[in-house]
Amino acid sequence: MRHAALPITLAALAALAVLSGQPGMTASSCGKLAEQSYRQKAELPRGVVEAIGVDIAEKGQAYQRGDVMQPGLPLYRFVSATRSGCRIRINYEQGGFAHRWGTFSLFHIAGAWRVTGTR
Q1: Which of 13, 65, 85, 97 has a CA between 20 and 30 Å from the CA of residue 75?
Q2: How far apart are CA 20 and CA 14, in angstroms?
Q3: Where are the beta strands (DSSP E) in the chain?
Q4: What confidence tens digit (pLDDT) does each residue in 13-40 have?
Q5: Residue 84, strand partner residues
Q6: What three-state secondary structure class fits 83?
Q7: Residue 105: what pLDDT?
Q8: Is the CB of residue 108 less than 8 Å from the CB of residue 56?
Q9: What's phi and psi for 51, nearest 5 deg?
Q10: Cα–Cα distance, 104 to 109 (Å, whole number)
């Protein structure tokens, strides 16, 4: 009975095998990537913006700054981002009735970026 958990363990390892956005990177090497800063939304790794799931304007571009809605403008605007290993944090401005600053946190797992939190 000692080996009953072996298939589950192997499946879990297979799911975590590729964690970074770069081909051929493994779970252990993803965590070893040096910290990287992003000053523009366009510089973010492939798949990050799509994973957020909201329309976000590039830094300096127009967005829904106040509570008077303007058709076609996103509610969020990119400020900056930092990647450390398999995690990326994106700082943003949110317009609307109550202007605020926030952060999207994402983690790269099983070949895709996943939102793990916002604040």
Answers
A1: 85
A2: 14
A3: 36-38, 56-57, 76-84, 87-94, 100-109, 112-118
A4: 333 333 334 444 445 456 667 899 999 9
A5: 87
A6: strand
A7: 96
A8: no
A9: -65, -30
A10: 16
